Amino acid sequence: MDGPPANDVCSICHASFHLPCQANCSHWFCGSCILQVWDHGAALRPCSCPLCRREITLLVPSEASSRRRHMADVADILQRIQTYNRLYGERSNGLFQRMQDLPFLLKRLLRDILDPQRSLPLVIRARVYLAVKLSSFVFNYDSFRRQFVLDSYASQLTSSLKVPFCLICSCVTACCLCLFSLTVATFAFTGVLGIIGLLDDLIIVFICCLYVAALYRASLLSRHGGS
């Protein structure tokens, strides 16, 4: 559902939402209320969320609000929201800011993809699909490479344990100790590779999410920034 939660109220006027808008911090406000907060704030700076105090760099009106743009008072508020987005929509450039915006952007993107009544631009859909496929390919290649390293190491370890039969009969105790030591070393090596591989996979997924979120943010900015 593209709108605030049911039975919720605007945290600024404490009344039912009038032209609800969602900020990049995921909180909902009346369009006119959040613009008043901006008007009474510092000049040439985006306003901060009254709830979480995060800097608001993007305002997204609900679909119901956008469909009422033929009304004069609604059109004026939507026009001011577009102005706000043009002024501050490009400020989400830092890595920390992008990480904070990820839940908001990915949730809206998933809703847009799954809702048949909403449609993303074909170019955005294609780039998101390519980004996901590329990350999947890199993920599978990385897993294959780590498995190849482990298999090679196990093969070398097995060949290094091959000794003449007569020596095995005479050095049972020494071989057992060596085998135990090498087994522990193998598990330790495998564990280290597993941890490194997991971190590597998480980094790949994280970069893919950042890229997809940046694509979707650009689409929102184009749609609600008047550009």
Automatic annotation (TrEMBL):
Report the superkingdom from the record: Eukaryota
Q: Name one GO molecular function term.
A: zinc ion binding
Please list every transmembrane segment annotated in the UniProt record, as residue ranges. Answer: 165-189, 195-216
Keyword terms, alphabetized: Membrane, Metal-binding, Transmembrane, Transmembrane helix, Zinc, Zinc-finger
Q: Which residues form the RING-type domain?
A: 10-53
Quote the protein name from its UniProt record.
Answer: RING-type domain-containing protein
